Every structure is written in C-alpha cells, then in structure tokens.
Amino acid sequence: MKGSLIIVSFFVFGCLFGWFLNNYDVTLEFDATRYVLYLLMFQVGLSIGSDKNIMQILKNMRPKYLLVPLATIVGTLSFSALAAFFITQWTVFECLAIGSGFAYYSLSSILITELKTASLGIQLATELGTIALITNIIREIMTLLGAPLLVKYFGRLAPICAAGATSMDTALPIITRCSGKELAFIAIFHGVLIDLCVPLFVTFFCSL
Amino acid sequence: MFIIIGIMLSGIALGYLFRKKTILQKLGKPISYTICLLLFLLGISVGNNSVIMNNLLSLGSQALLLASAGTLGSVLAAWIVYRLFFKKEIK
Q: Fewest CB atoms within 10 A around its CB: which of A103, A110, A112, B86?
C-alpha cells in the first residue's frame, strides 16, 4: 500500500507540473515516456530471463490460458454496456467502443476520434475520443495502483485482466510483483492478444 | 508494439545468458523506480493537455464510470476463471 501511495504521488506531481508548464504556455513536444517504457521493458525482460522457474512455465503453456483474454473481453464489454444505461449522451455502441480500448488509451482515443468524425461531427467525435483517453488512462492507473488489492479480493489473474492491453508492457512489472513471476507469460500472452483486439473491436463498435 | 516486445525479448535473452549473476536477482528496486518515473511522465502529459484539463469534470465523470465498469467487469470475470480453472495449478 505504501508503494502505491508513492506511485500515485508521482503521478499527481506530474499532473501539477504539466499543468504548471501549460499555464506558462509551455507545451511539451518531446515525449520521453516511450523511452522510459523501453528501459522498463528491458529491466522486466532481464528479471524474467534470469528467473530460474521460467522454462518450466513455458513447457506448461496450455490452451486454457486463452480463457484469460476471453474473461477480459467478456467482462469489460458486458459491464461497459451496463454503464452505458447511465450515460444518456452516448449510445451503447459508443460506450462499447470506449470500453474496447482495454486501457490502450493512445490508440483507442485516436481511432474513435477519427472513425466517429463522419457520423458525429468533429466536435462530438473529439469529446468521445477524449472520454476514451481518460477512461483508459484511469483504467491503467486503477490497475497499477490497485494491483495488490485486486490480487487479494479477485485472485491472481485479476490484475492481468484489469490491465487489458497493457498487461504486456506498462502493467507487466506490477503484475509480476503482485501476482508472481510465474504469471508473467500469461500476462504477455494476454497482452499481445488484447492488443490485437483493440483496433478490431473499436472499429467494429464505431461502425454500428 | 513490436519494438517493445523486441526490447523485452532481448532483455529476456540477456537475463537468461547472465542468470548466474546475483545482481539480476535484485532488480525489484530499480523496476519500482522506473515505474515511478513513468507515472510522473504520464502525469505531465495529462496536466499539460489543456483539452483534458479544461473539460476534466464533465468528461472525467463519464470516463470514471466507464473505467470502473470495465475494470470491475474484467476482474469479476478473472475471478471466475481463476476459481474454476487456475486455483489448483497456481499456488
């Protein structure tokens, strides 16, 4: 819990700092996030590769691991549809398109804005894209901060499913820490599959 | 996406080659530092985006509802799958 609070305080300081810069008309053109993410991925790779039990897990890869991404998709979409009943401004399918981001906020928000401009107009499409961005950022933050609690109440697969497409990159370190290194391969497998689903599902729900 | 996977795979390969080095068993701390830095940068990009900051309340409340619903739905499904298919295997 202490670790999560430290992480959230870094995020809040980041928000304040970015907002402060914006007030002085400093807009950031250079985004270092990607390169820090690369560093993180390399570290995660090192820790997985040097783990002594990994080869054992790889041998045990089985078809039932497909149930994990399936749980993510069914759970996310059914509850997004439920939430859509409380949001009068948008249709169920628009809410499902947002849910189909599966925490992949950069891609889903851009796709939704682009695909919805034709039917909704640029203003509403941008609003919908922004909601998609915030929704999926919140989902990622919830996963990163809540991972220990998710494991405690919903079992060790919960952070993987909550992480959606990010279970193979941004959320992978926290998943390996909270759920255990032996689930790293399920997390990566899950992340790759969900990652591929994001553009397909978003496009599908935007066309309805 | 392929770059990210490629970097991680090379990390795995190097980690496997040098798995006998004790320094590789102590990677937990540096990984936590990198996560903190990443969230700080994520915060900066959110705070620096005036479109998000100006409409934060109206858009944010809808986003919060959708994010909570999606997360809750997926962890409930994860719980069911875990209980039915994985609990015995992963200890």
A: A110
DSSP, residue by residue, B47-88? HH-HHHHHTHHHHHHHHHHHHHHHHHHHHHHHHHHIIIIITT
Report pLDDT digits (tens) over A109-149: 777 877 887 888 777 887 888 888 889 888 988 998 899 99
Q: Which tokens belong to B54?
A: 């100006």
Note whether B49 contacts A: Cβ–Cβ < 8 A: yes
Residues in A touching B40 (Cβ below 8 Å): 10-11, 13-14, 17
The verdict on a CB contact (< 8 Å) between B14 and A45 is: yes
Please state the domain count of chain B: 1
Residue A121 belongs to some domain of the structure: yes
Q: Does the beta-carbon distance from B64 to A136 stay under 8 Å?
A: no
